[in-house]
């Protein structure tokens, strides 16, 4: 695949992910106190991800579960990069 196609695919993926992440953050902002995600551990983020995966797999569509999965994963990555998780053995 030519590099220009890879770059185009990446930009399309990045744009879709950015839109989904912004929408999930906006929705979460209406449900949770500001910054409350900082008080949750990576393990708690993973539990939220599992709940969204299960809901999506069961056909529940009252909210954009895929966007919330992406958002919770981004939070977990940010927490891990900040050192908010115990090191692996």
Please outline what is shown here.
The chain is mostly helical and about 90 residues long.
How does this structure look, described?
By secondary structure, this protein is mostly helical. It has one domain. Helix content is 70%, strand content 0%. It has 3 helices and no strands. Helix 1 (3-31) crosses helix 3 and helix 2 packs antiparallel against helix 3. The model has no long low-confidence stretch (mean pLDDT 89).
Keywords:
3 helices; 70% helix; mainly alpha; 0% strand; 89 residues; globular
| N-to-C series of helices and strands | HHH
How many domain modules? 1
- Low-pLDDT parts are none
> What integer is the average pLDDT?
89
The 3D shape can be described as globular
Largest sheet: none
Portion in helices? 55-70%
SSE topology sketch:
Elements: H1 3-31, H2 42-57, H3 65-81
Helix pairs in contact: 1-3, 2-3
């Amino acid at each position: 695949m030519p590099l220009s196609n890879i770059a185009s695919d990446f930009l399309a993926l990045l744009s879709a992910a950015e839109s989904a992440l912004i929408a999930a953050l906006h929705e979460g902002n209406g449900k949770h106190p500001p910054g409350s995600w900082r008080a949750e551990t990576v393990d708690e983020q993973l539990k939220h991800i599992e709940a969204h995966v299960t809901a999506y797999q069961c056909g529940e569509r009252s909210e954009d579960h895929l966007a919330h999965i992406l958002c919770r994963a981004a939070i977990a990555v940010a927490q891990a990069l900040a050192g908010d998780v115990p090191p692996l053995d």
